[in-house]
Amino acid sequence: MATVPTLPGITSKMIDTPRIKTHVLFSGPEDGIPVLFLHGNASSASYWEEIMLALPADYRGIAPDLRGYGDTEDKLIDATRGTADWVDDLLGLLDALKIEKAHVAGHSMGGTLVFSLVAEAPARVLSGTVVDPGSPYGFGGSKDLDGTPCYDDCAGSGGGVVNPDFPKLIAAGDRSSDNPQASPRVVMNSFYWKPPFAPAREEDLLTSLLTEKIGGEKYPGDLLPSANWPNVAPGKFGPINAISPKYVGDSVKKFIAASPKPPMLWVRGDSDMIVSDNSFFDLGTLGKLGYVPGWPGEEIYPPQPMVGQTRRILEQYGPFEEVVIEGTAHSPFIEKPAEFMASFTKMLK
């Protein structure tokens, strides 16, 4: 039984794979053309349900809860492998479902995983759709369009930069709006979509957010002290360390050099404040605005140009289309699903 209530037309199953027992949502006919949906951080497969139900009749939606999230078996993420634990889990899931190739769509951190899947197994991806994806160079701690780390130890990225109240409130199952900086409901309604938009399933989506696995080696992950501003560097476990530039490795080069090259669709909201060139979740931006003391300045630690980095990488990769959806923030597929589906269906066809 799924923790989050599902919409009519969505089925929920536990799938055994050699790596991890994975909770998966399904839509459409079992023999339909497979579309794999990957959720972002602080959410779960539930975020994709409306889009799964809107797929053309001959497509099958498949949305797993990633390791560390939802109702999937609770196993640690080895961040020193970058995104490889998730990629291996997903390839294992496709094998267990006897799926050779699938269209893949990912939101936020899930978008980062689409880049990683194309880098590692391009022949298994029919097309890649990334929605407000994290930069393939990692989240935080890098500068310029080539993703140069601000410091050798990638200080300013990883588990140590998360507001500690946010995971505490997730662990407590907090559904209030009492903490204006860290209440899960406030963060979701302020940043996941553009206020005053309120999704019809706000309570279910909040429940989905609250399913993230919390702990020192889970979310947000461990940290190392650093002599470099802001005095924390990535540790070795958990999702936010896994998407630090410290562990990205050769994945950007492998993505750019992928063969074959599945076509890529990049969809983003014009008002996204989570993934942007001046992200409110990036210490370069917060330091520049004076919210975090001791900022070393633009030359050493500028705001990360997340959108610019993604565009530069896609331009080097090859076939891609960029679609900006007006009046939306971090989740245009939830805020304006019809506009999202217009571009997405074209990509699937």
Give a quick summary of the entry.
The chain has 349 residues and is an alpha/beta fold. Helix content is 28%, strand content 18%.
What does this structure look like?
- The structure is a single chain.
- This protein is of the alpha/beta class.
- It has a single domain, classed as Rossmann fold.
- It has 12 helices and 14 strands.
- The chain has helices at 49-53, 84-96, 109-120, 165-171, 184-192, 202-209, 239-242, 251-256, 283-288, 306-317, 332-335, 337-348, and strands spanning 11-16, 21-27, 33-38, 59-64, 102-107, 125-131, 142-143, 148-149, 214-215, 219-220, 223-225, 232-234, 264-269, 320-325.
- It is globular and about 55 Å long.
- The model has no long low-confidence stretch (mean pLDDT 97).
